[in-house]
Amino acid sequence: MSRSFLFLLGSARTGGNAELLARAAAQQLPSDTGQRWLDLARLDLPDYHDRRHSTEGWPVTTSDETLLWESTLAATDVVIVSPLYWYSLSSYAKRYLDYWSKWLSTPDPEFRAKMSGRTLWGVTAMAHRQDVVAEPLILTLHHTAAYMGMRFGGVLLGNGSRPGQVGTDEQAAIRAKTFFARDAPIARFPYAQE
Ligand SMILES: Cc1cc2nc3c(=O)[nH]c(=O)nc-3n(C[C@H](O)[C@H](O)[C@H](O)COP(=O)(O)O)c2cc1C
Questions:
Q1: Among candidates 82, 83, 78, 158, which has minimal Cα distance to 121?
Q2: pLDDT band at residue 194 using 50, 70 and 90 as cut-offs
Q3: Count of structural domains, the chain
Q4: Which residue's CA is minimally distant from atom 3 of ligand 1?
Q5: Domain boundaries, position 75
Q6: What is the C-alpha to C-alpha distance for residues 66 and 81, in angstroms, rounded to an integer?
Q7: Burial class (CB in 10 A: 0-12, 13-18, 19+), 76
Q8: What own/partner pairs with CB < 8 Å and gap ≥ 24 does 131-137 have?
Q9: For 135-181, where are the E strands, in sequence order?
Q10: Where do the DSSP E strands lie in the chain?
């Protein structure tokens, strides 16, 4: 199966640092690898309402929700491009993942089985200079991959606050060159690891 990357931008501003870093990493992908870029802040994805166990039924599905669902299922690799907000994912990125809870059962109950074996990646930018504070974001994505039976490629971290500032993070630029070439093992919860 040829690779196809879905980049989901989760910043609350356009042209931000996380996107810049993700584009630098994506430049290194082979030319026959598909790339689709969607900006979650520009899509009509309403706040998630949990109707999994309700007789009420789900709210009307927007065309952008369908676009995201179809694009997710069409991708071998899903890349969450989210700035570090309050040490974790942005609300846009988190909301997209909340919809996975709906998609587990509808419109196709095979969602998890189909995503199993595919790869989840993260790219983030942050003002803090100590990478360790991004652990909540990294664990969120890692555990999401473990729950879904997916591979986890890790998170590419870059430092910056003003738009474009990540461009001065030389270590991030070096990491970006090889980020998508790294091994992405099947994610396992810590208690399930041998
Ligand atoms: C709502 C909000 C929360 C933030 N929380 C953090 C944080 O917890 N840690 C941090 O290092 N930087 C934090 N920042 C700074 C951003 O991570 C930083 O400006 C980053 O470069 C933004 O990425 P972007 O340009 O892709 O939007 C926060 C910024 C905003 C707007």
A1: 78
A2: low
A3: 1
A4: 85
A5: 4-192
A6: 20
A7: middle
A8: 131/157, 133/84, 133/87, 134/84, 134/87, 135/87, 136/87, 136/88, 137/82, 137/84, 137/87, 137/88, 137/89
A9: 151-159
A10: 4-9, 34-39, 77-81, 119-126, 151-159
Please give the number of the atom of ligand 1 that sits closest to the Cα of 88.
8
Query: For the chain, how are helix, strand and coil distributed in percent, rounded to 5?
Result: 40, 20, 40
The 3-state secondary structure of 53-81, one letter per residue: CCCCCCCCCCHHHHHHHHHHHHCCEEEEE
Q: What is the pTM of this model?
A: 0.98
Does the beta carbon of 163 sit less than 6 angstroms from any atom of ligand 1?
Answer: yes
For the chain, the farthest-separated pair of C-alpha atoms sits apart, in whole angstroms, at 53
Average pLDDT of the chain? Answer: 97
Q: Is 83 in the pocket of ligand 1 (CB under 6 A)?
A: yes
What local confidence, expressed as pLDDT, does residue 193 receive? Answer: 76
CATH number for the domain that contains residue 151: 3.40.50.360
